[in-house]
Amino acid sequence: MSQNQNCIFCRIAAGEAPADIVYESEEIIAFRDLNPVAPTHVLLVPRKHVTSLHELADAPGRAALAEALLVAARAVAESEGLANGYRLISNIGPDGGQTVGHVHIHLIGGKPLSPRLI
Ligand code: DGP
């Protein structure tokens, strides 16, 4: 379901670019971040091209996609053995530090994380 040939996450979802995939469902693909910041750093990515979580909030099928992201987060956390906790982050827009314009949630864990976000 690649919708944007210029989008690296669409290309990964379509199997046209390599990634270390850890979870797949009809709606979501999850793969390890290229530049991990913790022992587990997985990106949860809807296959459908939506620019950010902000846009997802009024996209067609938003409820199913939001649910699928949460289900994927829990499944990955369990398969990665993160019983002690983990963090979910979604960067939105330039001031949010978003560098890839396809909605994704970072799932980070495998070590104690600082309560401070920045
Ligand atoms: P953000 O700054 O929130 O847009 O995060 C984008 C993340 O995507 C960043 O941590 C690096 C990762 N990334 C960028 N390109 C690729 C890629 O081609 N493959 C993988 N696995 N990760 C990528």
Describe this structure in words.
The structure is a single chain. The chain is of the alpha+beta class. The chain has a single domain (8-109), classed as HIT-like (HIT family, subunit A), CATH 3.30.428.10. The chain has helices at residues 8-13, 53-56, 62-79; strands at residues 21-24, 28-32, 40-46, 86-89, 105-109. A hairpin with a 3-residue loop joins strand 1 and strand 2 (28-32). The radius of gyration is 14 Å and the shape is globular. The mean pLDDT is 96. It binds 2'-deoxyguanosine-5'-monophosphate. The site of 2'-deoxyguanosine-5'-monophosphate has 13 residues, from strand 2.
Give the uncertain stretches in residue-range form. none
Shape annotation: globular
Task: Write down the overall mean pLDDT.
Answer: 96
**Major β-sheet annotation:** 5 strands, antiparallel
Strand order of the largest sheet: 1-2-3-5-4
Number of separate helices: 3
Helix content: 10-25%
Topology order in helix (H) and strand (E) letters: HEEEHHEE
Query: What is the CATH topology assignment?
Result: HIT family, subunit A
Q: In percent terms, what proportion of residues is strand? A: 15-25%
SSE-based structural type = alpha+beta
CATH superfamily: HIT-like
Distance between the termini: 35 Å
CATH architecture title: 2-Layer Sandwich
Number of domains: 1
Radius of gyration: 14 Å
Q: Got a strand count? A: 5
